[in-house]
# Entry
Amino acid sequence: MMIDLSTPIDVAIIGGGPAGLAAATTLKAAGVVRVVVLERENTAGGIPRHCGHPPFGMREFKRVLKGPTYAQRLVERAVATGVELHCLTTVIEAKIGGDLLIATPEGVLEISARRVIYATGVRETPRSARLVGGMRLQGVVNTGALQSMVFLKQMRPFRRPVIAGTELVSFSAISTCLHAGIRPVAMIEPDSRTTARWPTGLYPRLKRVPLHLNTRLVAIHGDKTVASVDVEDAEGMKREITCDGVILSGKFTPESTLGRMGHLEIDPATGGPVVDQFSRCSDPVYFATGNLLRPVETAGWSWNEGCQTGARVADDLNVKLPDMADLIPISIATPLIKYAMPQRISTAQSGGMKAIQLRFNGDAKGQIVAVSAGETVGRWPVNTRKERRILLPIRSIDMRRVAEQIALKYLPA
Ligand SMILES: Cc1cc2nc3c(=O)[nH]c(=O)nc-3n(C[C@H](O)[C@H](O)[C@H](O)COP(=O)(O)OP(=O)(O)OC[C@H]3O[C@@H](n4cnc5c(N)ncnc54)[C@H](O)[C@@H]3O)c2cc1C
# Structure
């Protein structure tokens, strides 16, 4: 469907994954007249389109679905509420004030919206950014690429790959392989335990995939296609594993290129746009939601964030959110804290996100304290492992004592 340029657009949403579709559906349900989703792929639904396994949909549909069914249901629900969905439509530039340059099958167009929501999700770190030596060969893929080859194109790129990483998505790589008759020869992890929570570490054993902890990928060898990899253990001992492919899984990074190239402030810690507790970016016409905010949460979590962001944008079209000048920046004062999101909160107005989302770079047991002008304005106990989600309730910050900014510190027990 060609995009109608003659009628004003109330809200344009960049990205038709779970978060973008949830925001769009919520906006329509709240009575917003014209809500447009712009999706670069030929079908909306985002990452779950190629996750051919359960469990998706418990929060949204109260049942366990496979990724593609879940994605399709989200699309159907959005369209049924009157959301205008434009696939094969890539936003190539987002300008101050809500003007978007879009590449469509009919050519490049410029549209304008009263509000814009970024919902462009995350991607896995490619090989180039992982500092793995060796040749550029066929058969080195991320999990996302593997899933779309297997589930969308019925391809089998290799038969005996090595999987690098042990995040949740790495286990999904095992199940994708097994679905396609591919048998991974090893799963490797530089840490002494798997990144995903127990009991995921039992899954490779159950599926007879050897799991090598304290082992990192050093180089990939072969001639045109992969023939082996070099791995190194914690003592620096190297060895070769024969294989015909490599799956570089996880190490997610927000898909924030558009905002980065444009005018939005980007948080180097999350890799996503800086937002306040109302999901509002540094340009108040723009909002952000879903996994773009920070790596990485599940589809259900991202969907829920999309619903909430949609409701906030609907409010913002009627009632103004607090002035940007009244927002207090949150900074991280301890390197062990990986990121904190939102990066700005309002001392004057409640509402919006209920908690600051936090992750650590390593294990931590002690306290997180919020300090403002030398005074402690919040304190929370913490007992966590690397990469676990932590939620700090915003209401436990003593807003009356907050000065110009809040620094988050970790005090070990
Ligand atoms: C490989 C991989 C596997 C995963 N597996 C699981 C899993 O098994 N279970 C789970 O719960 N979570 C999984 N996740 C996490 C996943 O990010 C969430 O499930 C969920 O998809 C997040 O929703 P989202 O809407 O924020 O982003 P996405 O689903 O990533 O949707 C973003 C959408 O934005 C579109 N887009 C991006 N840039 C543009 C642009 N410039 N113009 C127009 N459109 C654009 C993309 O095409 C995409 O459709 C996985 C993630 C990855 C990367």
